[in-house]
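Risk register update: the risk of archive-format incompatibility is retired. Evidence:
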Amino acid sequence: MNQPDYIIEDSTLLLAERLATDVANLLRSAIADRGRATLVVSGGSTPVPFFESLSKQALDWSRVQVTLADERWVASGHPDSNERLVRRHLLDNLAAEASFISLHEPELTAAEAAPVVEQRLRDNALPFDVVVLGMGDDGHTASLFPGAENLNDTLDLHRTPLCAAAIPPEAKHKRMTLTLRALVDTGHLLVHITGQKKRSVLEYALIDGSVNKAPITAVFMQDKVPATVYWAA
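Archived output:
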């Protein structure tokens, strides 16, 4: 298993600013190399300071496309929507010029929408330049949850789908998630976590090595792209 490099800061705010600076530099490089860049981000409360700092970074945001690692199957205006979170906290300030690629299709179920979203990503989002993942206290990342009935399929690097409907065992919303194959098909893979508990969860997962207990483990078992962990207590 690949042991990650850690970038550590003294506070969660300093970490968010460091991550924003590093991601902005990676996006600038991608724009310089191929004229555009695609950024994949995650939902939750942890990335909000990162989003707000990144939104103020000076770069050609009109050439940046933003999409999500996963989405709760709710309307885009729902308080639990990751799209709503990104639009409020990232696609603001200078980053308001970026375009957003939604994982949601309001008239369909998540299972029905999977091929539609798949084609949308293939047509508009690939290749990914930067993927920023989070991690839950249970070791899940994106919507790759322990105990999910299709977990093995979504972690299979040899399967072709980029996304899949997901039903977390204990979550209240169905989800759309990018598969592991899609998440690691990127130039740069970053994992943003805060707090001692999550670091302990990650370190135990890397020792234990069970992707079924902690799907985040699969991110570090693959050898397509190294993952860097950004952490602050």
